[in-house]
Amino acid sequence: MYTVYGKPMTRTFRVLWMLEEIGAEYDLVPAAPRSPEITALNASGKVPVLQVDDDYVTDSTAIMTFLGDRHGALTHPSGTVARAQQDAVTHLLLDELDAVLWTAARHSFILPEEQRHPGVKDSLKWEFAGNAARLAERIDGPYLCGDQMTIADIICVHCLNWAIGAKFPLENQTLADYAKGIRSREAFQRVRALAT
Known about the structure:
Elements: E1 2-5, H1 12-22, E2 26-29, H2 36-39, E3 49-52, E4 55-58, H3 60-71, H4 81-110, H5 120-138, H6 151-165, H7 173-183, H8 186-195
Parallel strand pairs: 1-2
Antiparallel strand pairs: 1-3, 3-4
């Protein structure tokens, strides 16, 4: 049994989705970012945090990688070329989609108001569109890494959903179709119900 700390409308969604996909039991503690409960577990105040017995794992990607390796699901085996390729796509998503969206969020509501520069968002939307178009060209199967769904797909679709919510235009039809197919998965739908 795992305990997940965080609210589903954050990157916690990714971890909950993975747990639903692999059928692992978990409890959800809907703690807010930077709350005393979270900062006691993660000095950065970021969610999600995964409790495993008496240990804690932070960062959604680290948590999903741990779960994938532990359960042998949604990941290629460690030490294989397929895993290295999966990790490369995962890091590309974190660098080119997630980081752009996070920067926009920081300049929208996270940073102190006097530190925000809302004008940067137009540049970020342009950057996101170009990165998304290049990503779409890499899709070589129903999933980002071919015929097998991996944690990269969870990160990607979560970022695409985040982009839509942040009013970043998603004009690439290949990516839109890919995301629509993944959103139809039952595990995604169960977590989406938690987030509403």
